[in-house]
């Protein structure tokens, strides 16, 4: 299912003067040619002349208005006697006056009066149908405005028929069709949680059972039903999802929630929340004003905050009971959560610098996410600094073949496009078949690796790595790995890491 928006419709009436619609001799444009220049949804086009009158020639008097297919009136100083037969819509050309039919804005220059053509807009009818189909009685306003898209608001109610438009001398302007009312003019946002097949990864606090239900829905045939026990005064419950499958929850995304609490509850509150930047941040500030109506759908919006560089990790709904309120056991329904995505921007201006000059501190770095394998250890050392007083010593005790060990920094303040530089010293006896490779973990723990480097022994080696494009789930960690080939011999010894850095603004 999806929601679609639509634009408001405006229909501009056709002004009829004495005479007939003049078409310029030799002009190959059709009456519809000018409609491409009209503003969609606008009231009128800039090149439409309403109530215009011919100049330089006497007005034809006594002419009979052409009906669809009728004949032109005789008389008038510049009209051809008898005229030619009008085509459907009464668009008889006259001789003796040069006209323009571009956009339905005909202006006779030597005879007939200007005709304000039917302007076609989205929501109105086309120029030929409902614009100037019949010259008798003015023009027909666009019928029905623009129909509301499925899932949108109510459809526009119709424009009324133009009135008047008599063909007495001078021609009385026909009054235009009334603009349709209703119908949303904004583009609908996509539904990201509709619960049409399953609960889509949502979970509840202990004691809450989640299932899909057809009992109460906003769109489609199913909603999420959360069955809970009684909520005590001053307490709250949470429904949460890890939005790994939703691609557009960037900072600034506006979500619309629809939640129904049972009839009979009193003095309850609800709000949306997010957890972000690798679980460091918790936000509820983005909620709009919320008035809970028990037994009916409560609708509100929530704007996702700046979640970078770590991205968004959780999205949820909290429902609680204020002082003096009650919430007996019952079912809560959630349906049709939509998201209007914010700007897809992962760039920024983070900085990082690690030189391990503080005695005893590894400055937040770890081995394989603190799994501390028995064959590898890290420690601050003053033995082999590249600069300053220290470096990070990485010691191996019989590192086996086909092994990989990862030296990791979690939750770095770094952004896509930034270049991370590592200085790595390997000793002269560094084992053959062992390589170094920088990497990052982002977008919900997806690995990305840089170039593999076979280091130069007994020297400081420089590794560089450009952080890749990062989605709304953010950057989780960066580092470099040491891995040995299947033919490498077990290695015992130490290498040193120093002067890891990145910085500068990036733009994606």
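^ structure tokens above, recovered residues below v
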């Amino acid at each position: 299912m999806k929601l679609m928006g639509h634009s408001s419709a405006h229909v501009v009436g056709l002004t009829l003067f004495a005479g007939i619609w003049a078409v310029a001799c030799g002009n190959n444009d059709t009456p519809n040619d000018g409609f491409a220049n009209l503003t969609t949804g606008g009231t009128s086009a800039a090149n439409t002349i309403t109530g215009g009158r011919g100049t330089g020639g006497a007005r034809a008097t006594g002419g009979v208005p052409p009906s669809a297919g009728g004949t032109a009136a005789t008389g008038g100083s510049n009209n051809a006697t008898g005229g030619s037969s009008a085509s459907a819509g009464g668009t008889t050309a006259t001789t003796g006056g040069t006209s323009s039919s571009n956009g339905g804005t005909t202006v006779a220059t030597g005879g007939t009066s200007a005709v304000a053509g039917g302007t076609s807009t989205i929501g109105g009818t086309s120029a030929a149908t409902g614009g100037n189909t019949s010259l008798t009685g003015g023009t027909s306003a666009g019928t029905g405005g623009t129909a509301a898209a499925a899932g949108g608001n109510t459809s526009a109610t119709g424009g009324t028929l133009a009135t008047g438009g008599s063909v007495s001398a001078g021609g009385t302007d026909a009054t235009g069709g009334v603009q349709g009312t209703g119908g949303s003019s904004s583009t609908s946002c996509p539904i990201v949680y509709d619960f049409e097949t399953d609960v889509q990864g949502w979970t509840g606090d202990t004691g809450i059972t989640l299932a899909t239900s057809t009992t109460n829905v906003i769109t489609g045939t199913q909603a999420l039903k959360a069955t809970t026990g009684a909520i005590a005064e001053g307490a709250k419950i949470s429904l949460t999802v890890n939005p790994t499958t939703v691609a557009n929850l960037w900072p600034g995304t506006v979500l619309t929630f629809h939640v129904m609490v049972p009839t009979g509850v009193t003095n309850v509150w609800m709000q949306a929340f997010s957890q972000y930047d690798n679980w460091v941040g918790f936000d509820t500030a983005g909620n709009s004003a919320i008035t809970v109506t028990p037994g009916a759908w409560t609708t509100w919006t929530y704007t996702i905050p700046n979640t970078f560089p770590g991205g968004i990790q959780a999205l949820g709904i909290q429902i609680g009971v204020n002082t003096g309120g009650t919430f007996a056991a019952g079912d809560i329904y959630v349906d049709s959560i939509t998201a209007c995505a914010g700007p897809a921007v992962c760039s920024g201006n983070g900085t990082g610098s690690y030189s391990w000059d503080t005695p005893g501190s590894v400055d937040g770095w770890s081995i394989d996410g603190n799994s501390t394998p028995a064959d590898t250890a890290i420690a601050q050392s003053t033995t082999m600094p590249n600069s300053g007083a220290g470096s990070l010593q990485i010691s191996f005790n019989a590192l086996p073949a086909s092994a990989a060990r990862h030296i990791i920094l979690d939750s770095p303040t770094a952004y896509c496009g930034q270049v991370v530089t590592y200085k790595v010293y390997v000793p002269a006896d560094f084992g053959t078949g062992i390589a170094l490779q920088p990497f990052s973990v982002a977008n919900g723990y997806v690995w990305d690796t840089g170039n593999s480097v076979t280091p130069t022994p007994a020297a400081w080696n420089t590794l560089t790595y450009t952080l890749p494009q990062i989605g709304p789930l953010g950057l989780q960690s960066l580092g470099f790995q040491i891995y040995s080939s299947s033919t490498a011999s077990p290695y015992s010894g130490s290498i040193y890491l120093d002067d890891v850095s990145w910085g500068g603004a990036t733009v994606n």
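The chain is about 0% helix and 30% strand.
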